[in-house]
Amino acid sequence: MEKSERKRNLIGKLLLLSATLVWGSSFVILKDTLDMLGNGHFTFFILAVRFLIASLIIFAISIPRLKNFNKKILKRGILLGVVLFLAYAIQTIALNYTTPSKNAFLTETYCVIVPFLSWFILKKKPTMKNFVAAFICLTGVLIIAFLGKTEKASNEALGDGLTVLCGLFYALQMVFISMFAGEKDDAMLLLLAEIATVAVLCLAASAVFEFPKYGSQLEMSGEAVWKIVYLGIFATCFAQFAQMYGQKFTSATTASIMMCFEGVFGVMFEFIFGQNNLNLFLIIGFSLIFLTLILNEADLSCFKRIIEKRKAEKRIDKTANEQRSEADEK
Question: For a Cys-Cys bond, which of 157, 175, 296, 320 suits 133, CB 3.0-4.6 Å?
């Protein structure tokens, strides 16, 4: 790998890691916001506002690029937007029934799904290292979600099932981004089309399912407004930008492993805000996920070369010993 390519790869991973940090903080904030606005009845409204804020910011940034907008970017953006809408909608609905930490970690089943989707859609067969890393990562996720939990929620079985389903759509989004973001199309315009699509779909869903039935229960406080603004600017605009550009320089499989730290940060913020307590299972789960990152990034070929070199040296020594034995016998 050339120096410039390694630099781009590092930038991509740092962008993905920064996105996971922000998303990790968003679970606690989103959970509180859902409770504040009509006791969880305005899921799509909250999503609509945060994606609308992000759309306006990205549109303002993209004005000089709009001349390059075309039908191909629009179609791809709409496809990404529909998939992302389903992922966010299912995940946010699930958050009404399960805890923020379980919601964060069970979402990360995508780390196991992505390598297989990449194989099926992109025809990129994962390496054995990718499979092992994904398995270890999922093990860490499950330990934290089921053995490390320290809090209860209203209907965890339903919430957990929905959360796993949303992981499938996040996996699809990662694979599609890998398909589209690496091409010559303007990634910012692609992101604009994606985010705007999610905003429109959320507005429509809120207008149909939420306001006709629960409109009178909506209570907008100053604290709720600032939390939604944070979700819109940082957890949506910045984080989606970081993912889109981060995946330009990394594979979908690597991105899925990097983004597993979203759950680690989610529990960390719960701990900071006093909503969770660390225990042995959480520490074991965290350690496995960190091991996953190290394994995924390690250059195992150097170990293979060392082993092969040692085997060659042993063969040479064996041959030399045999030749000396034959000489002695003569």
Answer: 296
C-alpha separations of 182 from 42, 118, 161, 289 in Å = 36, 14, 33, 27
Instruction: Please name the amino acid found at residue 178.
Output: S
The residue type at 236: T
**Number of neighbours of residue 165 by Cβ within 10 angstroms:** 17
Nearest CA among 164, 169, 167, 190 for reference residue 179: 190
Q: Which residue has the tokens 């759509």?
A: 169
197 residue type, one letter: T
Residues 6+ apart with CB under 8 A from 283: none
Neighbour tally for 142: CB within 10 Å = 17
Strand segments (E) across 26-130? none
pLDDT one-digit tens code per residue, 168-195: 999 999 999 888 876 666 889 999 999 9
Would you tell me how many other CB atoms lie within 10 Å of the CB of residue 242? 21
